[in-house]
């Protein structure tokens, strides 16, 4: 009899605690810690904290991947802090690609606004799921799995993505391997690439070693 009473009390307590604070707008003037930003004092919160206008303009796709991702995460959009949601804009020029990458902190939903995008992910048992998406199509990418987006048409493509976290994180596989000082011999042993290929990729992406 004690256990059910304890569970009911715990549920009521957690519910009442959750209702104490409606939101936790990030104080972006404070430190960015591993546990996130501290909350602004309620008296300092304004409607502008809940509005983000940064996704209206296209990103700069004049780069090696011919793509631009414009995020609206907690470090730029204070109002999503603590809410477990965020968004980003994806611009892909002709030939553009977002290489294999993961978001350790959240799942992703992508909707194509214009153009055509080939998108897919690889499950933990190495099964591949990919499809060419057109305007209005939506695809989901489960948390932590490697996935990619490629412009699949002859015109620029635009998509918006949402995440199940205000800080989904990002690790791009190519940059993790070839854009740092990880010794080439280690990369060669772990990827089965030869020395010339590794050195070439390091040269392209700015890595050393």
UniProtKB/TrEMBL annotation:
One MF annotation (Gene Ontology) recorded for this entry: manganese ion binding
Compartments, as annotated in UniProt: Secreted, Extracellular space, Apoplast
Domain of life the protein comes from: Eukaryota
PROSITE patterns to which the protein is assigned, alphabetical: GERMIN
Binding site for Mn(2+): 101, 103, 108, 147
Mitochondrion in keyword set: no
Metal-binding as UniProt keyword: yes
Chain sites annotated for binding oxalate: 103, 108
Disulfide cysteine pairs (residue numbers): 24-39
Domain Cupin type-1: start-end pairs: 53-199
Keywords from the UniProt entry: Apoplast, Disulfide bond, Glycoprotein, Manganese, Metal-binding, Receptor, Secreted, Signal
Assigned GO CC terms: apoplast
Predominant subcellular localization, coarse grouping: secreted
Entry-linked InterPro entries: Cupin_1, Germin, Germin_Mn-BS, RmlC-like_jellyroll, RmlC_Cupin_sf
Pfam families assigned: Cupin_1
Signal peptide boundaries: 1-18
UniProt family annotation: Belongs to the germin family.
UniProt name for this protein: Germin-like protein
Annotated organism of origin: Populus euphratica
